[in-house]
């Protein structure tokens, strides 16, 4: 039994986009061609990969398993192509980095400036989003290495601690600790590294927010608190200016400093390009992040 990789790519795009139409548009093929390719793959494998209805396409258990393998295969394909292009001098020294939104906004620029002083010939491309988005992009082979908020529980990824970032519980001046249960809490969306840490912290403190607002960024959370909408747990660096201006106050933790881990992730089995190897070596040398609120 041999896999037809053209058929496998068609199946993978149907699984990724959730439709034959989406796969056809992405691969610049006709919808019947995509359907024929997937059917041919199912015939070769002797098992159904998709459940087809008039409204949607759903993966079978076998389809879920094959899609997981297909993503790894095509990530390795991208790595192979990049390696050859670098050897031919077409993209030598090009590195695609992923970063969670807060890291891209506040931390990455500092480190990239130092890294490029050592390696000025390397071109950098940065993608950003929440932690869940960055994990997806690493698994799909769209970025070589990513810096994300929180630990990542994914067997297909290498994950190591990069830094511990201090967090603060910020409020408008005058809010007391005993008022926290009655306050409106500004929380991050599901999939955010901050959301996971905050949920665990609130559970540990026994606080059940009476009311809450879900936002898509820590910057939005800080501005909500400045406006008096509620309270939030945010990275200290994002609140530092507002604390200095007296627009915000923070409530110290009785258990000590609250931190969240920032992690470096990459796809297991994907060979490191020279640019990525240099960047990962540099990350291992960077200093611990300072607490801007101290």
UniProtKB/TrEMBL annotation:
Highest rank taxon of the organism: Bacteria
InterPro entries (alphabetical): LysR_HTH_N (IPR000847), LysR_subst-bd (IPR005119), WH-like_DNA-bd_sf (IPR036388), WH_DNA-bd_sf (IPR036390)
GO molecular-function term, one example from the UniProt record: DNA-binding transcription factor activity
Keyword DNA-binding among record annotations: yes
Residue stretches making up the HTH lysR-type domain: 3-60
Alphabetically ordered keywords of this record: DNA-binding, Transcription, Transcription regulation
Coiled-coil positions: none
The keyword RNA-binding is assigned to this record: no
Family: Belongs to the LysR transcriptional regulatory family.
Protein's recorded name: HTH-type transcriptional activator CmpR
Taxonomic lineage from the root: Bacteria, Pseudomonadati, Pseudomonadota, Betaproteobacteria, Ferrovales
Gene it is expressed from: cmpR_2
């Amino acid at each position: 039994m041999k896999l037809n990789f053209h058929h496998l790519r068609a199946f993978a795009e149907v699984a990724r986009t959730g439709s034959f139409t989406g796969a056809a548009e992405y691969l610049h093929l006709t919808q019947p061609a995509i359907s024929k390719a997937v059917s041919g793959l199912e015939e070769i494998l002797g098992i159904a990969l998709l459940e087809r209805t008039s409204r949607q396409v759903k993966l079978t258990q076998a389809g879920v398993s094959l899609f997981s393998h297909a993503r790894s295969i095509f990530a390795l394909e991208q790595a192979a192509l990049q390696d050859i292009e670098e050897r031919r001098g077409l993209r030598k020294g090009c590195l695609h980095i992923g970063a969670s939104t807060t890291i891209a906004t506040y931390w990455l620029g500092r480190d990239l400036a130092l890294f490029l002083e050592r390696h000025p010939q390397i071109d950098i491309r940065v993608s950003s989003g929440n932690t869940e988005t960055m994990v997806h992009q690493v698994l799909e082979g769209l970025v070589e290495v990513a810096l994300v908020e929180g630990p990542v529980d994914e067997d297909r990824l290498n994950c190591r601690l990069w830094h511990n970032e201090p967090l603060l519980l910020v409020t408008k001046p005058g809010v007391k600790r005993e008022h926290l249960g009655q306050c409106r809490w500004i929380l991050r969306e599901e999939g955010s590294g901050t959301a996971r840490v905050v949920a665990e912290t609130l559970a540990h403190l026994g606080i059940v927010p009476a009311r809450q607002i879900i936002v898509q960024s820590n910057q939005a959370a800080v501005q909500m608190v400045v406006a008096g909408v509620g309270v939030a747990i945010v990275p200290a660096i994002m609140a530092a200016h507002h604390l200095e201006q007296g627009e915000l106050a923070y409530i110290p933790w009785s258990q000590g400093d609250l931190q969240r881990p920032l992690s470096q992730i990459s796809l297991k089995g994907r060979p490191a390009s020279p640019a990525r190897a240099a960047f990962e070596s540099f990350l291992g040398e960077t200093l611990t992040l300072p607490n801007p609120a101290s």
